[in-house]
Design a protein that fits this description.
Length: 215
């Protein structure tokens, strides 16, 4: 009986070490709303519970969509676009990246990633609190030919930050890292976590590792 109790004690301690002791690289790929995320961290809107240290990176996309790509835009509400959230064709990192194709049937189109899965005007607060961060990072590329994307950014117009964007984003056929400076912006109430908008296609573009961090 004594040996059995000793075995259970060792098993419990080992399990705890495996959960808490994951490496920084493993931990940085977790989203604070995932069940595996260490509960000593808090995420936007109070995600982690109890702790005071936010994660170094807060992912919008890393091998999967952590929030809905739900804000489809365009003259026909983005019907010209197709979206593959788990594309395995040469991702920048991990097993998957995000692939967007336009068939050119709209003169412009785009998609928002939305914290609540709907436009802010129809959603119920609270929204994401991203005040711990000052930079939005993403990786992007085009398919067969280079492409200049009209707008890439974050924030719906009625979010606390307003829209923050970069224009005329030149994508090559190789992965590139882009950063959007959010210094001085009010990030206390954000529904539009990421978006892009582009003129008439056809075109194919890719995104990977979209996250908030600090310089």
């Amino acid at each position: 009986m004594r040996e059995y109790v000793k075995f259970l004690t060792i098993l419990t301690i080992t399990s705890a070490l495996l959960i808490v002791g994951c490496s920084p690289k493993e931990r940085e790929h977790l989203n604070p709303y995932d069940p595996e995320y260490p509960k000593t961290n808090t995420g936007p809107g109070g995600g982690g519970g109890g702790g005071s240290q936010p994660p170094a990176r807060w992912y919008v996309y890393n091998d999967s969509a952590n929030y809905p790509w739900s804000g489809w835009m365009g003259p026909n509400n983005g019907t010209s676009l197709s979206l593959n959230l788990a594309n395995s064709e040469k991702p920048y990192d991990g097993a998957y990246c995000l692939k967007i194709h336009s068939n050119g049937s709209e003169i412009w189109a785009g998609i928002y990633v939305q914290f609540k899965g709907d436009w802010r005007a129809r959603a119920t607060p609270p929204f994401a609190n991203l005040t711990n961060y000052d930079t939005l990072v993403f990786y992007a590329k085009a398919s067969n030919t280079a492409r200049i994307i009209n707008e890439i950014g974050m924030g719906e117009i009625s979010d606390s930050s307003g829209q923050v964007k970069i224009n005329n984003v030149y994508l090559t056929t190789n992965w590139q890292r882009f950063e959007i400076d959010l210094s001085g912006k009010d990030l206390s109430s954000i529904n539009g976590l990421f978006y892009f908008s582009e003129d008439i296609g056809p075109y194919t573009i890719y995104f990977d590792l979209i996250f908030y961090t600090n310089k």
